[in-house]
């Protein structure tokens, strides 16, 4: 499990970066194509591994690693055929670290805080309770995934509006994002917050509902965390 997880953890940020470059290049269709390839590859590879009776422990992260590798390779080939423009400026790693030191620290703080929270829960309540919390996180995962997907397309526009000091454009972008997140939040909360006949995840991930209210609180926490994203892009 750790080996396949490490492979996924290495490949996933690389394809995230390439997807972001497509958005920056105003070629969001390439990013969408990359996501489609990743989804289809994950579905096909996990199904194939189930059919040939691969050790189940290797399947979830193994399928994700394969999907990341295939989507990354496919889109790099596509980008190569699109051609490239040589920039008239060069940025060194030292320049990036110097100008982005606060962003670097901020990006480190999130996984570090998650790791610390997991360690505290494991120490105080045990790994079984942490597993229940992780199950609830899986149920609400569409919220952060949707947020990241929308902001991947809107973030360059938010940054450009802030750079140009165009308040009207910036507010239009942030309102669009907040409306989308609000609609998703209300609909998804109504479906998955509690186990009921119309909630398929209560059957697929029953452990998430072992602790009453855990899914609802996790969903609200993810929504609150996602709401400031356009303003963060403006500050960047």
Structure keywords:
236 residues, mainly alpha, 11 helices
Structure summarized in a few sentences:
The protein is mostly helical and 236 residues long. Helices cover 80% and strands 0% of the residues. The protein is built from eleven helices and no strands.
Structure description:
By secondary structure, the chain is mostly helical. It is built from eleven helices and no strands. The longest helix has 26 residues. The mean pLDDT is 91.
For the terminal residues, how far apart are their CA atoms?
36 Å
Mean of residue pLDDT? 91
Q: Point out poorly predicted stretches.
A: none
- The helix/strand class is mainly alpha
**Helix-strand pattern, N to C?**
HHHHHHHHHHH
For the largest beta-sheet, the strand count, sense and barrel status come to: none
Write the layout of secondary structure elements.
Layout: H1 2-24, H2 28-51, H3 59-82, H4 93-99, H5 101-125, H6 127-139, H7 142-163, H8 167-192, H9 201-204, H10 214-226, H11 229-235
